[in-house]
From TrEMBL:
Mg(2+) binds at residues 253, 262. HAMAP family: SelO. One of its GO terms (molecular function) is magnesium ion binding. The active site is at 252 (proton acceptor). It is an enzyme of class 2 (transferase). PANTHER family: PROTEIN ADENYLYLTRANSFERASE SELO, MITOCHONDRIAL. It comes from the Bacteria. This is Protein nucleotidyltransferase YdiU. Keywords: ATP-binding, Magnesium, Manganese, Metal-binding, Nucleotide-binding, Nucleotidyltransferase, Transferase. InterPro entries: SelO. It catalyses: L-threonyl-[protein] + ATP = 3-O-(5'-adenylyl)-L-threonyl-[protein] + diphosphate; L-seryl-[protein] + ATP = 3-O-(5'-adenylyl)-L-seryl-[protein] + diphosphate; L-histidyl-[protein] + UTP = N(tele)-(5'-uridylyl)-L-histidyl-[protein] + diphosphate; L-tyrosyl-[protein] + UTP = O-(5'-uridylyl)-L-tyrosyl-[protein] + diphosphate. Belongs to the SELO family. ATP binds at residues 90, 92-93, 113, 125-126, 176, 183, 262.
Amino acid sequence: MKTLSTLTFANSYCDLPDTLGTRITPQPLDNPFLVHFNPLVAEKIELTSITALDPSFVDVFSGNATLVGLSPLAMKYCGHQFGQYNPDLGDGRGLLLGEVITSNSIKWDLHLKGSGKTPYSRTGDGRAVLRSSIREYLASVAMEGLGIATTHALAIIGSETPVAREKIETAATLIRVTESHLRFGHFEYLFYSGQHAELQQLADYVIEHHFAELATTDSPYAEMFKQICHRTAIMIAAWQAVGFAHGVMNTDNMSILGLTFDYGPFGFLDDYDPHYICNHSDYSGRYAFDQQPSIALWNLSALGYALTPLLDKTEIDHGLEHYQHQLQQQYSHNMRQKLGLTLTNDVDSVLFSDLFQLLQQHHVDYSLFFRTLSYITMTDLPHSCSLFSELFPCTSDLKKWLDRYQQRLLLEPNDNQRLAVMQQHNPKYILRNYLAQQAIEKAQQGDYKLIDQLMTVLARPFDEHKHAEVFAQLPPHWGKHLEISCSS
Ligand code: AMP
Ligand code: MG
């Protein structure tokens, strides 16, 4: 394990054409202090946790000091925001500080979010507030705990620098750690600005660093696109199965590695509502929960179009078809695990659609329903209606569905194993908006205990945590209706 000064850094992104970014140093914060540190993320980059106690950690990651080996740079990219192309984007409040190379040669980007103005800040102040930094920090832990590909967050640094949002808040930084910060929008930028030689260089870079096994195939660019489609499908299938809504699926927030990226007004479903809109500023519901699979396809089409200097139409279509096929397969796989079905049967699709209809009709808590179901043995199912009393009125519809589910389970080989599988695929703990909100309010008063406690359960959301039952309960009424805007 290493300290900050003994980490090995690289800056491979800086070797790409200059048009892809601007070197710039972070702007310092007033009286920075450590809010929270994630030792599991530190472990990924082989950084010892003791480093968090070192004052230089806070200085470097608040932008108040530099570190030999880092070469901070604001990335240039563009993208489609709510369907409209915006040529004017880029890292407006974050910097790629550098890349850590681990002993087994894995490259991890270190990105400082909230580091001050850059040439791409437009009218923004270049800052991130403590509130949104905590949301991203906890979401990164929660998604990883759920087994969903995501960026990670090493730490949050707080400060006394005032920042104007709906009201005055304080600025913070978040140290994001991930394999790559490349977005669909990087390719869109080079395509729409006519920089097609640079576009090819970027594609070569992506293949070299992230899809090396494709370099020797007959058509590496087509294979790269197919891989991006594949990973996006796996990610979206996981979001839909777990009930995660991203909220701002603009192409500049889509990772070329299929990572859940750029957490803003995201939300996990409380009551099952396929039309759930987590982003209060999304007036048309473009990014509603049930739109995510088709929006990802739209975004992949935009990426495919941006890659036309390297791909022909058949190759693009092939990638997009792969996405649709893979999404279907993976989603069905994930949902079957949620119901503990290992065999396929003709009745399954109706069993699922009737269940979704019931959940929607009765406003049933999505995660708690599946978790409750994960404890009920096959023999107990027909008289288990009362176990759902907190979630469901005990209607004849529910009873009928439980009977049909029992009949279906008779075909399955092993009921104990089914229960174990279901408990491993139906989380007991999810990052409900109100939990994040409570952690934020405590942290704004300087109390970070709730962040600690939430991190512990969210990192292992399928386990029982004896002293944390309170986090596994139904949300309070006020907690279901929090309005989360894009402001961050
Ligand atoms: P986001 O909605 O966070 O994905 O950001 C969209 C674009 O706006 C990106 O180019 C961001 O860097 C930029 N941006 C967001 N907030 C700020 C801010 N406070 N200051 C400067 N740029 C920002
Ligand atoms: Mg963004």
